[in-house]
Amino acid sequence: MQVKQTSGDLRNHHAPRRALVTGGAGFIGFHLARRLLADGWQVTSVDGITPYYDVALKRARLTLLAAYPGFSSRELLLEDTSFADAYADAAPDVVFHLAAQAGVRYSLENPDAYVDANLIGTYRLLELVRRRPPSHLLLASTSSVYGMGDDQPSAERGATDQPLTLYAATKKAMEVIAHSYSHLWKVPTTVTRFYSVYGPWGRPDMALFKFTKAILAGEPIDIYGHGEMTRDFTFVDDVIEALVRLAVVIPVQGEPASPEDPLSPVAPYRVVNIGGGQPVGLMTFIEAIEHRLGRAAQRRFLPMQPGDVADTCAAGDLLRALTGYRPTTPVDIGVGAFVDWYRAHKGVPCL
User: Fold this and answer.
1) Secondary structure class of 237 (helix, strand, coil)
2) What distance in Å separates the CA atoms of residue 202 and residue 205, rounded to the nearest whole number?
3) Burial grade of 178 (CB within 10 A; 0-12, 13-18, 19 or more)
4) Which residues pair with 234 in a beta bridge?
């Protein structure tokens, strides 16, 4: 069994100190870059600043990161040929690949964006990684790869061959392609499957952002699945803590860390869920928003949307075995942090 390592290992002089964060202007990428910078890393962000949502929000995140002397950023798509120069300049010890076209429902409207970003962009990165391997490559995936998720909680060894959306399919394809590169070129690779990440600086297309905005404006909120769905909501700070701990838990072929470890038998490659394993009802989530805002929502109940699943829940035993950590932030605390940020960001006074 591998020795458990914690985020404290990142601060000793033996730890890697140069990180490349793709999607560094994005929601999770921003939080990760800020944490790494605070821990003393040199961080290079690569982000295409695409207009999928308000680019002003992305640039505001980059402005905050630019205050750190160890930060640099490049505005480009991973599909661009200039990405090779950015990668070489970054000379990363660890690569965190978070850049992607996100959103389940948007994949029904603009499938090309998912193929370009999630498949071609990842392929371009992997080609660079195999030529100049970092000590560890971490790739962001999603709980959506579990499809309907009939077996709850979903464990890393569970079936992922029946995705319900193109978004999930491209993420699963990314995982499989990365495995082949890890096998052929022996690049230590960890795939992290995120569960309903939320928190300050979140995306405007996410439910928490949309609900908060609508309630403050006195507008109705659309509640899909008639409010009967559950989600394993994971606060962004918990996700970042898990990522920085996993950064120093480097897969070694033939050395699984626990009986739950799905370490590949032919590559230094594993998959890890990042979720708390404590699903919350959608209505409970909405009530937490209402409580923090001091306002009731106008509720409009609708059927489930194409590609939606009724429930998600992460099996978290592997993450805990690898890092000694498991997400624990309660929804009321996480929602409160978002609402406070939203008010400050939008200049909305408290009641």
Assistant:
1) helix
2) 9
3) buried
4) 197
Task: Indicate which residue of 106, 114, 167, 195 is catalytic.
Answer: 167
Q: What DSSP string describes 46-58?
A: EE---TTS-HHHH
Backbone phi, psi, residue 115, to 5°: -65, -45
Active-site annotation holds for 167:
yes
CA 31 centroid distance within chain: 10
**Tens digit of pLDDT per residue, the chain (351 long)?**
333 333 334 433 345 599 999 999 999 999 999 999 999 999 999 999 999 999 999 999 999 999 999 999 999 999 999 999 999 999 999 999 999 998 877 888 889 999 999 999 999 999 999 999 999 999 999 999 999 877 889 999 999 999 999 999 999 999 999 999 999 999 999 999 999 999 999 999 999 999 999 999 999 999 999 999 999 999 999 999 999 999 999 999 999 988 889 999 999 999 999 999 999 999 999 999 999 999 999 999 999 988 889 999 999 999 999 999 999 999 999 999 999 999 999 876 665
Amino acid at 236: V
Q: What is the DSSP secondary structure assignment for residue 311, as one 8-state letter?
A: B
Distance CA 199, CA 213 (A): 14
Q: State the pTM of this model.
A: 0.94
DSSP string, 142-196: EGGGGTT--SSSBPTTS--S--SSHHHHHHHHHHHHHHHHHHHH---EEEEEE-S
323: Cβ–Cβ under 8 A, 6 or more apart, which residues?
4, 5, 6, 242, 245, 246, 249
SS3 content of the chain, % helix, strand, coil (to 5): 40, 15, 40
Task: Tell me if 8 sits within 8 A of 83, measured CB to CB.
Answer: no
